[in-house]
Write a structure and sequence with these properties.
Blueprint: H1 7-13, E1 16-20, H2 29-39, E2 43-46, H3 56-72, E3 76-80, H4 83-89, E4 93-96, H5 103-110, E5 115-120, H6 123-132, E6 136-139, H7 158-165, E7 172-175, H8 183-189, E8 193-196, H9 198-201, H10 206-217
Parallel strand pairs: 1-2, 1-8, 2-3, 3-4, 4-5, 5-6, 6-7, 7-8
The structure holds the ligand Cc1ncc(COP(=O)(O)OP(=O)(O)O)c(N)n1, 4-methyl-5-hydroxyethylthiazole phosphate (TZP) and magnesium ion (MG).
The ligand Cc1ncc(COP(=O)(O)OP(=O)(O)O)c(N)n1 binds near residues 47, 80, 95, 100 and 117.
Length: about 220
């Protein structure tokens, strides 16, 4: 997958976007990812951070394993934060936030052929990310989350509606506290996709959970 995919294909790829690192699961992450893919996730982000996370070679080795799982199933592989690793691996994309490397610098580093996702919380940040060359926006936290200690204030699905009203047309994924039950209102607010950590990573069956999200997000 590359940025040369058209906008509709990118939106489709963002529809059920699973995010995880090894500390979000209590089983081998490649197994959880394989199960989530069998249930219907459409994109994966490797987000290896926090206490006890893998670093250096161990992180890179895990990234290679996960990338191979994604390649085997034609699922896009996005790396969180680590631009150097994304470039070294020739990942499908990189996701950065407001506290990471700037979006326009990152776009220059990765070139045009890699997907750039940018986290935004406000309309101003969204407009800046568009100007800086983002391919999609991660808007949140929409609801309360236990998966990010330094999360901004909860903004609710209304923030997505407000961004759409203000003319932001870039693909948007919602993030933060997303559950199957809350997915219909996220979709109605104008998001192209849902980004999920715990509701898939901690589910008794990641495959079943992923399939429930897929059913709601289809068409
Ligand atoms: C799809 C998506 N949206 C938002 C985020 C959050 O990114 P960021 O604000 O940089 O926080 P960290 O994930 O790095 O803790 C994301 N990772 N993915
Ligand atoms: C990475 C991130 N950015 C904003 S909220 C969040 C965590 C989302 O995790 P969960 O789906 O478990 O609430
Ligand atoms: Mg980040």
């Amino acid at each position: 997958m590359s940025k040369h995919i058209d906008n509709d294909t990118l939106k489709q790829a963002l529809s059920v976007y699973f995010i995880s690192g090894t500390t979000n699961v209590n089983r081998p992450l490649p197994n959880v990812l394989t199960e989530a893919i069998s249930g219907g996730i459409t994109l994966f982000q490797f987000r290896e951070k926090g206490s006890g996370c893998l670093t250096n070679k161990a992180k890179r080795d895990m990234a290679e394993k996960l990338f191979q799982v994604c390649k085997d199933h034609q699922i896009g592989f996005i790396i969180n934060d680590d631009v150097e690793l994304a470039i070294a691996m020739n990942a499908d994309g990189i996701h950065i936030g407001q506290k990471d490397a700037g979006a326009s610098i990152t776009r220059k580093m990765i070139g045009e052929n890699m997907i750039l996702g940018v986290s935004v919380h406000t309309i101003e940040e969204a407009k800046q990310a568009v100007a800086d060359g983002a391919d999609y926006l991660g808007v949140g936290p929409i609801f309360q989350t236990n998966s990010k200690q330094d999360a901004e204030e909860v903004c609710g699905p209304e923030r997505i509606m407000d961004m759409r009203k203000s003319g932001i047309n870039l693909p948007i994924v919602a993030i933060g506290g997303i559950t199957v039950e809350k997915t219909p209102e996220i979709k109605r607010a104008g998001a192209d996709g849902v980004s999920i950590i715990s509701a898939i990573a901690s589910a008794p069956s990641p495959s079943y959970a992923a399939n429930q999200f897929k059913e709601i997000m289809k068409d």
